[in-house]
Amino acid sequence: MKILIVEDDSDSRVFLERALKGKGYPVETAVNGIDALDKIRQSMPDLIISDIMMPEMDGFDLCRAIKSDKRLKNIPFIFYTATYTDSKDEELAMSLGASRFIVKPLEIDMFLQAMGEVIRDHKEKKLHVPNDVKAPPRDLTRMHEEALSRKLEKKVRELELYRQIFTNAHDAIAILGPDGRYAAQNTAHRALTGYTDEELKGRTPAMQFGEREFDRVLAKLIKQFVFFGELLSRTKDGDVHNVELSAFPITDEKGKVIYYVGIQRDITRRKQAEMALRLSEEKFEKAFRSSPTLITLCTLEDNRFIEVNDAFLENSGYNREEVIGRESKELHIWTDPAEMERVMGLLREDGIVSNYELSLRTKAGDVITVLWSAELIDIQGSPCVLAVALDITDRKKLEEQLLQSQKMEAIGQLAGGVAHDFNNILTAITSYAYMAEKKVGKDEALKNNIMQISSLVDKAAEISRGLLAFSRKHVISTIPININSTIISTQKMLTKFIGEDIDITVRLAGRDLIAMADSVQIEQVIMNLVTNARDAMPRGGQITIETECVEIDEDFVKAHGFGRPGPYVLLKFSDTGSGIDQETKKKIFEPFFTTKEIGRGSGLGLSIIYGIITQHNGYINVYSEKDSGTSFNIYLPLYTGEFKDSKDMVDDQDYSGKGETVLLAEDDDLVRRAEMSILTDAGYKVIEAVNGNDAVEKYYAHKDRISLLILDVIMPKKNGREAYEEIKRHDPSVRAIFTSGYTSEIMDRKGILIHDVDLLMKPVVPTVLLKKIKEVIGG
């Protein structure tokens, strides 16, 4: 189906043409009624879509001509108009034989739908095709004239609106012909230049700007189709004004310039204020520029910067062009806009503000603390604010560090005192328990109760040791140790400890890093930090442990507020967890402070770490933001003396058995065989089991001989706890030692935590295992 589009507006014509071609319709176009009739005579279309208001022949006349021609009257005709939108216009259109009357703008999909309905009705011969137009020519002429009249009235109203806007605009507006000569000016332009309309006739703006400047503006307009800049304008009386000129051309549909429009704004007062400011600057510029304090000059009304000194630029990170002329709100310099309003209110009331402590934000987003003093001054009749700010950020940090140090010391003293009294009580309990055990004799049940008391004392002692570690009163045994080796020795255990959903990466320095340290306590530091990292990543994540040798110098001490110059071993622990907010960071090293739910943490982990590191003459700090992970940096003094790898100490105590039978349940073949060898060599008889079910069956088969159960906590078919509980129901006096590569917290999460029993954490040291067996069996 071939479609003819009749539209004088090129943008509308091209848009509709592309839309129809995109749907596969062959399309031809015409720019008015006469052009359309010529195209129709050459090639008859199947559908005509026409605008109404067009030059030479409008859409109404075109439709009447089509519908009056016997050869053409059956062609469906759609009006698509944005100017004739009255119901009477539609009535006239339909009386001329139009198939549909559509008002612009209409979504293209809806337009295509309406067009499709017309095409369908035409194919089904449902369109009414009049033998002649429905009204006599005289009536059609009257209706046409009425439509034109309504359109003209609307245009007149629009033109009057535009005229009022043009006439009463605050800015000076002039319209030039394509030759650059004045065609019209508004009231503001008359006031700016002093020329009447008659005096401007036939003249160009060269009389206002000078020949050279006018030629420059016109050349730029012709080349770039826009001009914006500041010029000097001379009035009829010879006065000179600073003006801001914005100019652009108006073109016809063929791109030919028909007018130039120039809009001028008198900026003389602004330029005078700038000049006055520059003149006044010379009086105090040297002191202003070189002052180490931050100095700004801004307007009181909108806090717009007029001038700032070098110290302000250096501290804020902005350059002068980014600040001058802009409001502080635009730059978000005040961290608290409400505080700015309060300070400005004080200035309006008293005219002066002295040493007001507030926070400002730099370009980089950092917050600095300043003592802000300001006074109102008058510049060219406008109230302005001369402000001087002293950056006290470093001083505030030092004060906070001192307060934190004093608080930690006070808490440490309190913790040490509590631990001291606590240990006295525990010592008494332990002593009584020991004496009672000596007098019990062979009463195994009573002896077991006493052992439980000892076990509880040990748990209480852990808390005591934690408090002592925090208060740095715990006696430590330091020897030169290789920090890299300590991390490597714990890495395999850490991998099992943290679970499979967390990756652990270790990056060690390429040289041995030796420090005077207690290896057990350093391992405790590693375990506590990894535990915290794991808990911060319940859905898994990444833990990174790094070491390197660093040099702390005076600049480092000044920047960080801690340390003594010299070489240090740096241990860095990073995670991708939930991070720590600023308020929590202030308290994390305090004992008993925890963000975990009740029962999930004692609040001693980080305080113990703090105490251990401090007792090693080291330092620890934390870098973290909410939802951005956490990094702990630990600095231990580097040992530079002679170092030899320490060997395992030989325990010469006799932990041999006396032929007792031990039931060993372990699902890992290598571990089971290794432990069987140890036990057999030590004089024990061993019955092995490969899982929990196997352990229960073999216990019933040999229960009269079995003295002790050694059960792995996590095993297939039946775990160690379930096997133990089943055996204990039949033999309440049964004794057992549990082993596991998981911590109690992980076992708790898996629902198999075992309380009040002997638990050895893997890797199990043979002497520790044999000693524990002696203890449990009672040997």
Strand arrangement in the largest pleated sheet: 2-1-3-4-5
Under the CATH scheme, the architecture of the largest domain is 2-Layer Sandwich
Please, what is the CATH homologous superfamily of the largest domain?
Histidine kinase-like ATPase, C-terminal domain
Compute the CA-based radius of gyration.
46 Å
Uncertain stretches of 5 or more adjacent residues: 470-475, 596-603, 647-651
Indicate the CATH class of the largest domain: Alpha Beta
Tell me the overall shape.
elongated
Give the count of structural domains: 6
The count of DSSP E runs of length 2 or more, i.e. the number of strands, is: 27
Overall structural class, as computed from helix and strand content, comes to alpha/beta
Strand content: 15-25%
Distance between the termini: 107 Å
Total helical segments: 27
Instruction: Tell me the helix content.
Output: 40-55%
In the CATH hierarchy, the third-tier topology of the largest domain is known as: Heat Shock Protein 90
Report on the biggest sheet.
5 strands, parallel
Mean pLDDT: 82
What is the compact description of this entry?
This protein is of the alpha/beta class and 779 residues long. Helix content is 46%, strand content 23%.
Secondary structure blueprint with pairings:
Blueprint lengths: L2 E4 L3 H13 L4 E4 L2 H10 L4 E4 L8 H10 L8 E5 L5 H9 L4 E4 L4 H16 L13 H32 L3 E5 L5 E4 L1 H7 L3 H4 L5 H4 L1 H14 L2 E8 L5 E12 L5 E10 L1 H23 L3 E6 L5 E4 L1 H7 L3 H4 L4 H4 L5 H14 L1 E10 L5 E13 L2 E10 L1 H48 L3 H28 L7 E4 H16 L3 E6 L6 E4 L1 H17 L5 E12 L1 H7 L5 E10 L6 H4 L19 H11 L3 E6 L5 E8 L23 E5 L3 H13 L3 E5 L2 H11 L3 E7 L7 H11 L5 E5 L3 H6 L8 E4 L4 H12 L2
Parallel strand pairs: 1-2, 1-3, 3-4, 4-5, 17-19, 23-24, 23-25, 25-26, 26-27
Antiparallel strand pairs: 6-7, 6-10, 8-9, 9-10, 11-12, 11-15, 13-14, 14-15, 16-18, 19-20, 20-22, 21-22
